Amino acid sequence: MLQYLIILLDDTSVSFCHYENKKTERRLIPLNDLKEGILFAMKQNLMVQFVYPAYELPESYQTVIESIDNHKIQPASFGNTDADVVVYTCREAISETGFIHKDGAAFVLRVNKEELFAGYTEILLLLKRLNRLTLVVTDIETFRKEDVERYGEIVSTFKKGIMEQFDGESIPQLNLLTDRVRLDKMNNCNAGVGNITLAPNGKFYICPAFYLEDEAEAAGNPVDGLDIPNKQLYKLNYAPLCRNCDAFHCKRCVWLNRKTTLEVNTPSHEQCVTAHLERNMSRMLLKELQAKGLFPGKEIKAIDYTDPFEVKERFQ
Ligand code: SF4
């Protein structure tokens, strides 16, 4: 069921996920399209998430934005911000010396492989001062065997860091590890099913990445309604590997799927293996937390594979 409408306010709106936004020329969504998008969200009872560029919007836009209950996703370069989600680059996160953030704000840190491998100890330090950190590795599809091994070591270091920072009450939250500990069912990105994106050209897309990759791939508009070609393919039930998988925290990125396997419902080896490394380390974290009295009765089962494709006959 559709629950969220993501509105990209500008062509230069910050990326908060795997995709890169290489656009540098501003193209603000026309005010009328913004209003149509908000009306669509109101009629469908959707929560709106506005994705901001790194510049101040005209007052007329701010007034329209505040006409509906919303979540704001903003780049950290905004400085002091009342965003619900603040998106950092690695350099910004490490050098940041105390912007004022809204209480309860969540933080997204987008890093590539090189930045992660070189800066993971600094990333761990960030956990001490941020409420919740969502780490997005932007080039997971480039991981080779040795990168996966290195990634495993780093995720293990993150687990140790979380336990060291755990004060007996609140657990530092890092999506890669603490999400799976809490989840009992799939909680994926759900683009094209649970959320849809309105782009600055006034048209709908499966997600921001689909828009940035090819504007011709529109999936309707707020006036005529949604029109998603082969829309069943975005549903979990139509993803033969994912629907039986218990890496519940995995993004299950349909854009990445299509980029790597040419099918939106077939994941790449790299996406599955990294998600399973995280899943298995979450299992160890769970055990350590249980030894301290948390999550009684909760179980993440031991498994003998790291890519569901290796045991696909069991996943039929
Ligand atoms: S780990 Fe692989 S099979 Fe499991 S949900 Fe993620 S993409 Fe799907």
From N to C, what is the helix and strand string? EHEHEEHEHEHEHEEHEEHH
Mean pLDDT over the full residue set: 94
Low-confidence parts: none
Shape: globular
Helical stretch tally: 9
Task: Estimate the strand proportion.
Answer: 5-15%
Bound molecules: iron/sulfur cluster
Most strands sheet: 9 strands, mixed
From the N-terminal CA to the C-terminal CA, the straight-line distance is 25 Å
Total number of β-strand segments?
A: 11
Total of domains: 1
- CA radius of gyration is 20 Å
Helix content: 25-40%
Task: Write a brief structural summary.
By secondary structure, this protein is α/β, with parallel strands linked by helices. Helix content is 34%, strand content 14%. The radius of gyration is 20 Å and the shape is globular.
Could you please describe the fold and organization of this structure?
The protein has nine helices and eleven strands. It is of the alpha/beta class. Strands 7-6-5-4-3-2-1-8-9 form a nine-stranded mixed sheet. A two-stranded antiparallel sheet has the order 10-11. Helix content is 34%, strand content 14%. α1 (31-44) runs parallel beside α2 and α6 (175-182) packs across α9. It has one domain (4-228). It is globular and about 55 Å long. Bound molecules: iron/sulfur cluster (SF4). The site of iron/sulfur cluster has 12 residues, from α9. Iron/sulfur cluster (SF4) is lined by residues 241-242, 245, 247, 250, 252, 267, 271-272, 275-276, 308.
